[in-house]
Structures are given as C-alpha cells and as structure tokens.
Specification:
- The chain has helices at about 5-10, 45-50, 55-60, 70-80, 90-100, 125-130, 150-165, 180-185, 200-205, 230-235, 235-255, 260-270, 275-280, 295-305, 325-335; strands at about 10-15, 20, 30-40, 60-65, 85-90, 105-115, 120-125, 145, 170-175, 190-195, 210-215, 220-230.
- It folds into two domains: about 5-115 and about 220-335, D-Maltodextrin-Binding Protein, domain 2 (3-Layer(aba) Sandwich), CATH 3.40.190.10; about 120-215, D-Maltodextrin-Binding Protein, domain 2.
- The longest helix has 18 residues, at about 235-255.
- The strands form three sheets. Strands 4-3-5-12-6 form a five-stranded mixed sheet, sandwiched between helices. Strands 9-8-10-7-11 form a five-stranded mixed sheet. Strands 1-2 form a two-stranded antiparallel sheet.
- The model is unreliable at about 1-25 (pLDDT under 50).
- It is built from 15 helices and twelve strands.
- Helix 2 (about 45-50) crosses helix 12 (about 260-270) and helix 11 (about 235-255) crosses helix 15.
- It is of the alpha/beta class and about 350 residues long.
Length: about 350
C-alpha cells in the first residue's frame, strides 16, 4: 500500500481528463476552501465526521456547507459553480442532468438502506391510535409526502407502498421537507410521509408519529457523493483527498459508530437533534471501501423512466455519470477495509 507521502509526492492522473498535474506536500499548501451541498439528516454523517474529526483538514480542505432539500437543487448549485461537491440522492435529476451533459460526476456512494431503514414511512400517532390509519392500505387515495418528487425518496416510498399492498399511483404524492413532516401529519395536510433519521426518532419521542413501514428496502445504494467538473480537473489532489476523508469517516462510523458519544454530538451539531436521540436512531450504512453498485443505479433509472420523470428515452450507461477513479486513488492511500474480528 502506498503511504501518504509516496502518493502525494507523485504526479496524479486526473480522473476526468487523464492529464497529469504536479502534487505538492500537504504542509506546503494553504487549505482549499470548497462549498459542499448537503441536507441536515443522519445519512450525511460521514461529511459531518470528516469535518469535525479533522479528516478534511488533513487533506488540505476546508469545507463550507450549503443546505439544500435535494433533487434538482443539488445539480443547479453544482452546475452554477457555487459548489465544488455535493452529497445527495440518486434521483431523476441525476439522470436528466447527465443526459444534458452537465459537468459533474458521481464519485462515491454515500449510504445504503438496510432494515430497519433510516428513512421510514410514518403516520400521525393520533390517527394511528384512533384506527384511522393502521396499515399501508389505509393510505389509498390520500396524500403521502417525499422531501423532493423525483428524488431517491420517491423510490423508497414506492417500495414501502408495494410492500404494504398499494402502488404509488394509488396515493397522492406531494413534497414536504423532512423537518415539516410531523406538523403536516398533525394538521392533516398529509396522511403519511417519508421522514429521515434522526428526525424520525425525535418525532417518535415527542409522541408525534408512528413508523408504519421500515423494512421495505435492503442494501440499496440511494445516495452519492458528486463532484463538479472544475473541482475534478483543477484540484485533483483535493478531489482525491475528499474521498480519503470520506472513507475514513465511513470507517469511523462502521459497526456501532453512531452509538458513540462523540459521533452523536457531531450529528447533533449539524442536525439540531439531541445526541441522546441520535444514539437511538436507526443508523444508515456507509460503504467503507467506496464500492458503487451500478445495478442499483440501473434500477433507479428504470424506475424514474416508468414514472415519466426522465427527459430522455434511451438508457444511460454508468460511464455517463460515474467516475470511480477518485475512490481507486483514495484506496491506495487508506488501504482496503476489513471488518474487525468479532
């Protein structure tokens, strides 16, 4: 395995263009300030950990976070040059942006869902206790929310409805940002909604919601790390360094990481949810070696095609929107991860 000194003392092949760029030792350069798009929920914890534990700083990067609900907003920010990187869902916006030739790439997975999922389908507790909504079938014809229509969350709600005996066409799909879901349920604006952790556990503690379905997806990659083209081409060392920091954070979270006090406090800082709630939330899974499952991308693309949310009618190959070179270079630095012995 290459050491950090060996790697950073050598020339790096640019992942986007195959060009060579000189690389200086980290200590000789000022930190590069970059903007990163994110959403303040649990599944983005590797980003929070990479900042707070100094993993990004070790790579000569200072990150400024820009909050966005997801969907097209992520690509709008990347395409405008207002951000160098983003963490977001694998939705219709990804495939439409790639088909239009926008200057970005998926460079690493962010998280996958395993039951009990960290973004369940929830309903109002009062409605549940009164018997108004006790099963997924009771949502027929009613309003059900996702944070962004056309996002990966739409794929999740479809899976939850199918598991409960409905199709997505048998409900009225609406948009509600995650933090607003409990109130929307309480005032009857929606009958059900997808809600991401740790907000789910917080709302549960407050007696606001009941998890109606939380076992509808198993090991599906639904979020990713994205780079804008200029960041990939103009700052190849930091582009690799960001993935190094991301993988270190994923490994720090591996296993029982979310139950540790320091991690819970970090997540509290970025989500506003108390640390004790974070420790009890359903944890997402973050791939410690950055392996991407292109089959999941294909499934998502087909789903959004069938939903009529793609602006093209031909399948895009993974090479049109995925670049694995940064993960490959990062693994030369941090090495392959093996789970610790039980």
């Amino acid at each position: 395995m290459l050491t950090r000194r060996d790697f950073l003392g050598a020339s790096l092949v640019l992942a986007a263009g195959g060009l060579l760029a000189p690389v200086r030792a980290l200590g000789q350069a000022q930190p590069l300030r970059i903007n990163v798009v994110y959403t303040p929920v649990l599944i983005f914890a590797p980003l929070f950990v990479a900042i707070e534990r100094g993993y990004l700083r070790d790579e000569g990067i200072e990150a400024e976070l820009i909050s966005a609900p997801g969907g097209t907003s992520v690509f709008a920010v990347l395409a405008s040059g207002r951000a160098e990187a983003a963490v977001g869902g694998l939705g219709a916006a990804l495939f439409n942006a790639a088909d239009r030739g926008l200057d970005f790439k998926v460079v690493a997975p962010a998280h996958s869902e395993r039951p009990p999922v960290s973004t369940p389908l929830v309903v109002d507790r009062v409605a549940f206790e009164r018997g108004q909504i006790r099963t997924v079938r009771d949502l027929r014809g009613k309003k059900v929310s996702v944070n962004v229509i056309g996002s990966a969350t739409e794929f999740w709600v479809n899976a939850a409805l199918l598991r409960g005996g409905l199709t997505i066409d048998q409900v009225q799909l609406v948009e509600v940002n995650f933090p607003d879901v409990p109130a929307a349920l309480a005032n009857g604006a929606i009958a059900g909604g997808m809600l991401g952790e740790p907000l789910t556990t917080l709302a549960e503690d407050r007696g606001q919601i009941v998890r109606l379905s939380q076992d509808f997806i198993d090991n599906v990659q639904v979020t990713a790390v994205y780079y804008g083209g200029p960041f990939m081409r103009d700052h190849p060392r930091q582009a690799v360094g960001f993935i190094v920091a991301w993988l270190r954070a994923c490994r720090y979270l591996y296993g029982g990481g979310y139950s540790r006090d320091d991690v819970a406090l970090i997540v509290q800082k970025y989500t506003g949810v108390p640390a004790d709630v974070v420790k009890r939330a359903r944890p997402p899974y973050h791939e410690p070696n950055g392996k991407m499952n292109t089959n999941d991308f294909a499934r998502l693309q087909e789903f959004f095609k069938n939903r009529g949310e793609l602006t093209y009618d031909h399948p895009l190959p993974p090479s049109a929107y995925i670049d694995t070179a940064f993960v490959e270079q990062a693994l030369k630095i941090v090495g392959a991860f093996s789970p610790p012995a039980a």
